[in-house]
Amino acid sequence: MAADDRLDDDELARRLREAHRRVSAVLTGLPADEKERLARRYLTICDLAKRDPARAAARLDLLLASLDGDLDTPRAPESTPGD
């Protein structure tokens, strides 16, 4: 493993820890089905980080954006859960 790869892994690990803190904080106010969905999403990203760190980082960006409310979903009221 090259030194640069290790730095990338450390950055991803730091971001995953931060995401864990944020997801844990958000879970307290959610209904049970939303808690499960968000927890599974986070765990899937953690598992993916073992095999494909670049893809995991991209999915982590999306998760963090959704926690921030930065995703633009103008038709969200029309969407069914899971879409």
User: Rg, please?
Assistant: 14 Å
Low-pLDDT runs of 5+ residues are none
Give the CA-CA distance, first to last residue: 38 Å
Number of helical stretches of at least 4 residues: 3
Overall mean confidence score, pLDDT: 82
- Helix/strand-derived category reads mainly alpha
> Main beta sheet: strand number and arrangement?
none
The 3D shape can be described as globular
Percent of residues in helices comes to over 70%
Strand content: under 5%
DSSP strand count: 0
Run of helices and strands = HHH
Task: Give a description of the structure.
The structure is a single chain. This protein has 83 residues and is mostly helical. It has a domain at 12-66. It is globular, with a radius of gyration of 14 Å. Helices cover 73% and strands 0% of the residues. The chain has helices at 3-27, 32-51, 53-68. The mean pLDDT is 82. The relative contact order is 0.12.
Briefly, what is this?
The protein has 83 residues and is an all-alpha fold.
What is the fold's blueprint, element by element?
Layout: H1 3-27, H2 32-51, H3 53-68
Helix pairs in contact: 1-2, 1-3, 2-3
Tags for this model:
83 residues; mainly alpha; globular
